[in-house]
Amino acid sequence: MEKAVTKKTTRRTAVKKRPAKTTPTRAGRMKQPTSTGGETVGHNLPVAGHTTGEDWHHRLANHRRRQASVSSILDETFGQLAACSPDLWERRAYLMLVGLVYERLALHEDEISTEELISLSKALAENRRVELNQRKLRQGDDTTQAGVSDDEKLPKHFADSVRQVYGLDVEDHGETKVERAGKPNSVPP
Amino acid sequence: MANGRKTRQIKRIRNEALVALKVIYPACMQAEQLMRSLLVLFPILEFDHLKRDLHYLCEKGYIERVVTLTENGSGLTPWRRRWFKLTTQGMELADRCISDPALEE
């Protein structure tokens, strides 16, 4: 797997201007670059491939949006990441996979657009929420010895809400189809 | 300036390396993957420059190298295949809980 990684050719994307200050909030979720309307110090200096400041801000803002979505997807997919110490290195493949997933999702804008990625992360989060709710309901039913048939159904207007917000089909005949949204092709542009 | 690079760009590259590692914290990332992720923002970045920055961040205590059990001699592992992760101090810096004038623009 390592060989496959190292053999990949590096992708050089056209970058345009200089970055704004950003404020990290939590892993991967960065606030958008703040406005730098009055900034003049070094504003005209060419950086990162002879690009100008405004383009760079735009580029960085887009990259931050993408990173935040990737972070969300990693959280939803892998849950809490295991501590990465040599003692736990038997999980090397797992940790390697995390890095590869990050790289793949964060960099390949031609394969999946940022908008699709954001929709995907939201759909995954929604799916996880539904699963958790169903699990809670199931646990509650186990304690009360009640059936689960009615409780497992999604709320009445859930499908409409999700369709309006994310443009995804969630429900059909009482069965959830959120998982289909995990495939990039099923997410509308 | 270092190796023809401007101070501001050096700081940006170091900061973006911390951000990328923060996304996957506490997992780690290979230098090659880090390099590719930085190329999106810094298309003229060279690996030797990143290597210097990784050295710097390691010595500052913001990132640390993770040596795998399969690495016989850790010094023999090519740089591109070495794994790095944020330290707690690096996480605090990336979260802006602490500040480092050397990395502030």
Fold and architecture overview:
The complex is a heterodimer of chains A (189) and B (105). Chain A has 2 domains: 87 residues, no CATH class; 77 residues, no CATH class. In chain A, 28% of the residues are buried. In chain A, strand 3 and strand 4 form a beta hairpin. By secondary structure, chain A is mainly alpha-helical. In chain A, the strands form 2 sheets. In chain A, strands 1-2 form a two-stranded antiparallel sheet. The N terminus and C terminus of chain A are likely disordered. Chain B has one domain: Arc Repressor Mutant, subunit A (Orthogonal Bundle), CATH 1.10.10.10. Chain B has a 3-stranded antiparallel β-sheet. Classes of the chains: A mainly alpha (189), B mainly alpha (105). At the A-B interface, helix 1, strand 1, helix 2 and helix 3 of A face helix 1, strand 1 and helix 2 of B.
Summarize the structure.
Chain A has 189 residues and is mostly helical. Helix content of chain A is 47%, strand content 5%. Chain A has 2 domains: 13-33 and 46-111, no CATH class; 113-189, no CATH class.
Largest interface: A-B, 51 and 40 residues
Number of DSSP helical runs of chain A: 5
Q: Stretches of chain B where pLDDT falls below 50 for ≥5 residues?
A: none
Estimate the global geometry of chain B from the Cα principal axes: globular
Strands of chain A, count:
4
Global morphology of chain A: flat
How many domains would you count in the coordinates of chain A?
Answer: 2
Strand content of chain A: under 5%
Instruction: State the secondary-structure class of chain B.
Output: mainly alpha
What structural class should be given to the helix and strand makeup of chain A? mainly alpha
Biggest pleated-sheet summary of chain A: 2 strands, antiparallel
User: How confident is the prediction overall: mean pLDDT of chain A?
Assistant: 60
Question: Average pLDDT across residues of chain B?
Answer: 86
Q: How far do the termini of chain B sit from each other? A: 14 Å
What summary fits the major beta sheet of chain B?
A: 3 strands, antiparallel
What order do the helices and strands of chain B follow?
Answer: HEHHEEH
